[in-house]
Amino acid sequence: MHESVQSVAMIGLGRLGAPIAACLAAGGFRVVGVDLKRETVEAINRRRPPVFEPGLEAMLGRVDDRLTATDDLAGAIRQTDASFVLVPTPSETDGSFSLDYVLAACEEIGEALRDLDRWHLVTIVSTVMPGDTSGAIQHTLERTSGKTCGEGFGLCYSPEFVALGTVIRDYLNPDMLLIGESDPRSGRTLASIYKAVVETDPPVSRMSFVNAEIAKISVNAYVTAKITFANTLAGICERVPGADVDAVTQAIGLDSRIGRKYLKGGIGYGGPCFPRDNAALAHVARAAGAIADFPETVDAVNRQQVDRMTAQALAVIPPQSKIAILGLSYKPQSDVVDESQPVMLAERLAQAGHTVRAFDPAATPANKGYTLCDTQDACLLDAHAVVLATPWPGMAEAVIEQANQKPTIIIDPWRVLIEQTMPAGTTYLPGGRHVVLGDKKTDRIAAVAPPPDDLAAAG
Ligand SMILES: NC(=O)C1=CN([C@@H]2O[C@H](COP(=O)(O)OP(=O)(O)OC[C@H]3O[C@@H](n4cnc5c(N)ncnc54)[C@H](O)[C@@H]3O)[C@@H](O)[C@H]2O)C=CC1
Ligand SMILES: O=C(O)[C@H]1O[C@H](OP(=O)(O)OP(=O)(O)OC[C@H]2O[C@@H](n3ccc(=O)[nH]c3=O)[C@H](O)[C@@H]2O)[C@H](O)[C@@H](O)[C@@H]1O
After folding, report:
1. Are 213 and 130 within 8 A, CB to CB?
2. Atom 20, ligand 2: which residue's CA is nearest?
3. Which family does it belong to (predicted)?
4. What CA–CA distance (Å, rounded) separates 375 from 6?
5. In 52-98, which ranges are continuous DSSP H helix?
6. Superfamily of domain 304-430
7. Could you tell me the distance, in angstroms and rounded to a whole number, from the CA of residue 269 to the centre of ligand 2?
8. Active-site option among 106, 156, 237, 273
9. Is the CB of 271 under 6 A from ligand 1?
10. Which H or E element spans position 398?
């Protein structure tokens, strides 16, 4: 434990704040969690997960009496040495992130700091736009506290690189720690808090606020470009006789300049984080008068992936079929459907005149044009075609069982069934592979599926 920081406040106990508060408390800090939502506060105090996150319940079982939750933000600041702000920063229509929640929290933090007779470290973890920490955030804290940043209190910007579904593992095993700091004491203190909790010994990059702000959205923009490159290869491999995207990406991933992570061609990236960060980087570039084409192109090509999947499906599924879509969340082990490609695919196939049923173990999107089923069996009942859109555990087996009972078209964008022997009568379409259907020995996909642009133009 760091000598000066024994207790921390976590402001915002949502998808990130709740698991991180639990990790800090399990790691030995006294943590006061703060949230506006009464049910979230009650859930934490009863050691129940307020959000869907694997492993959170177990982590809450390890916090003993070190974690309490309240809606009293000022009280939490008065009781603690450091605070983390993890409230939403929703995207605006121009691609930038709203600071409304962050500034509302900072107003209250600043007012509490005014009467505090000791130094306190405020760390913004929410993803904010370049310039925000040294701008509106610092100004708000200074105005409301009457103190000078870097003297009366410390300020850091330290975003997380954790993925939903693996928040706890990623938080405890980071590749690196990124810290934008108002002054050396603040950066040093935050680094010591992290080092007391994380299970590895990651490198710490300490820098100015603006560099940390740019670095955060750059990581996501770079990784999405990598995924989009894999998806571009998948689209090519589907049309080139004999080609297999996994053979290509596994080979090129061995080049250390490329690397194998996040190089799986699939259905396109979605979720509450990746899609918005390219839009944010493009906004930063445009606002600065720099070239914005790169992040804009990555975003546009990612959106074309649903066109690619829709074209592939429509090429093999007879008109007015019953289609089962398995998995609607943007990835397994999550209930999130923001920018979910499976949801978009379900809507597109329904628009094309098919009867579409969908099932997800956790997600419940407001469905447009398709039926949301309560069970996997109900979704699969009588289906002519199945799309394994987001392959949760157990789904692959259910699809094979279905195909054993009746001839089925199986569309498998992630190739989870690629090693399986398909039951007789199955039409199997893995994404990213060239497929010769039946005994025609023709390039069926290339011959039948219009390129995505034609499909989009056709409406
Ligand atoms: N979810 C993710 O995987 C990641 C999220 N982030 C960033 O973290 C931030 C938070 O994201 P999530 O945890 O997903 O959001 P969330 O919406 O799940 O949780 C935010 C929580 O903050 C609470 N809140 C809002 N204003 C408050 C206030 N004044 N005082 C106390 N509580 C308040 C809300 O009630 C809510 O429970 C965003 O900026 C996001 O971009 C960054 C990396 C990963
Ligand atoms: O900034 C954020 O908020 C977070 O965004 C992502 O986290 P997340 O969106 O939760 O989940 P990922 O597991 O990274 O997956 C994102 C999307 O990429 C897709 N993906 C991932 C990997 C891959 O090889 N191919 C691919 O299409 C997934 O299917 C999913 O749609 C980043 O991975 C985190 O590091 C970051 O902190």
Report:
1. yes
2. 269
3. Belongs to the UDP-glucose/GDP-mannose dehydrogenase family.
4. 47
5. 56-60, 73-79
6. NAD(P)-binding Rossmann-like Domain (3.40.50.720)
7. 7
8. 273
9. no
10. helix 395-405
State the binding site for substrate: 216, 262-266, 270, 331
Q: Binding site for NAD(+), residues?
A: 35, 89, 127
Tokens of 228: 């989009």
Mean pLDDT of 64-89: 97
- In this structure, the number of other CB atoms found within 10 A of the CB of residue 47 comes to 14
Instruction: Tell whether pTM > 0.90.
Output: yes
Interface ipTM > 0.95: yes
Q: Does the beta carbon of 178 sit less than 6 angstroms from any atom of ligand 1? A: no
Which of 2.60.120.10, 3.20.20.70, 3.40.50.720, 3.40.1550.10 would CATH assign to domain 7-207?
3.40.50.720
- Is 156 catalytic? The answer is no
What proportion of the chain, given as a percentage, has pLDDT over 90?
92
> How would residue 442 be classed by pLDDT, with cut points 50, 70 and 90?
very low
Q: How far is the CA of 104 from the centre of ligand 1 (A)?
A: 13
- Of 86, 92, 96, 217, which is best to mutate to test ligand 1, by the most ligand atoms within 8 angstroms of its C-beta? 86
Closest atom of ligand 2 relative to the 271 alpha carbon: 9
pLDDT tens per residue, range 92-146: 999 999 999 999 999 999 999 999 999 999 999 999 999 999 999 999 999 999 9
pLDDT at 443: 40
- 218-301 is classed in which CATH architecture? 3-Layer(aba) Sandwich (3.40)
What are the residue boundaries of the structural domains of the chain, listed by start? 7-207, 218-301, 304-430
DSSP string, 22-56: HHHHHTT-EEEEE-S-HHHHHHHHTT--SS--TTH
Counting ligand 2 atoms within 8 A of each CB, the residue from 227, 298, 414, 416 with the most, and so the one to mutate, is 227
Instruction: Dig out the tokens for 101 from the structure.
Output: 């929640």
